[in-house]
Amino acid sequence: MPGVIVLGTKPGDFLAANSFDDPGGLPYTTRAARLQFYYKLTGAVATPADRPVAHVSLTETTAGVRQGVATGSLFLTPAATYTVADLPLTYTAGFAPDSIRIAFSSADYNVGAAGFNSFTVGNTLYVDDVVMSGIVVATRDAQRRAAVSVYPNPSATGLFTRAPGRETTLVTGAYVVTDAPGRVVRRQSAEPANANGPRRVDLRTQPAGVSSLRPDTPRGPVVHQLLIP
């Protein structure tokens, strides 16, 4: 890979503080602890600008506003054989993400007045077996998730019920349900604030598998994993 490869959308300066503003991304809802992968770097790394780099960012978008959830970057050293790299994420928010962006570059990727840094001829970065691993507990997300129960889960019929704890308003907001690839399979608008009782989530037309229920609550977004066995 002589150059840059990106999962999601081509980023701007992905080491900058505003990297969360990059467009695109792919659906991802786990608060992973780290990005791990194998890499092999051949060629001469003579200057800091030659250093290959890996970057990952997690974001969450509500009402069209994107917020950063976590980010991490790692400069890579030359390795003649495949070597394990471990890139821990730093979390700046307590809620779950909805998108991920991963980027690898065979040189320090930077955009300035002079344009992109040049890539040294002969330097090649090989990347394999890229995984997100571990879980970082989302305190606020866990509190919101506990405030609204979803049952039965798993549901053999595809019918789920959302019921509030002490705060009925937690189940009156709008919600969307996405399938495993991140496609929206159901969308429900908000109910009146004085609506009482549980709300049904009807996924009877969906095949067996895991879906993600993302209700908007007064405390912010939350994610429930729904299973149809």
Structure description:
By secondary structure, the chain is mainly beta. It folds into two domains: about 5-135, Sandwich (Jelly Rolls), CATH 2.60.120; about 140-229, Immunoglobulin-like (Sandwich), CATH 2.60.40.3080. The chain contains one helix and 19 strands. The chain has one helix at about 140-145; strands at about 5, 25, 35-40, 55-60, 65-75, 80-90, 90, 100-105, 110, 115, 125-135, 150, 160-165, 175-180, 185-190, 200, 210-215, 220, 225-229. Strands 1, 2, 4, 5, 7 and 8 form a six-stranded antiparallel sheet that branches. Strands 14, 15, 17, 18 and 19 form a five-stranded antiparallel sheet that branches. Strands 6-3-11 form a three-stranded antiparallel sheet, with no helix packed on it. The longest helix is centred in the middle third of the chain and has 9 residues, at about 140-145. It is elongated. It starts with a strand and ends with a strand. The model is unreliable at about 15-20 and about 110-115 (pLDDT under 50).
Work out the helicity level. Answer: under 10%
Note the overall shape: elongated
Q: Count of DSSP E strands?
A: 19
* Count of helix runs: 1
Give the number of domains.
2
**Main sheet?**
6 strands, antiparallel
Low-confidence stretches at least 5 residues in length (pLDDT < 50)?
Answer: 13-20, 111-116
- H/E series: EEEEEEEEEEEHEEEEEEEE
Q: Mean of the pLDDT scores? A: 76
CATH architecture of the largest domain: Sandwich
State the name of the first-level CATH class of the largest domain: Mainly Beta
Give a short overview.
Helices cover 4% and strands 47% of the residues. By secondary structure, the protein is mainly β.
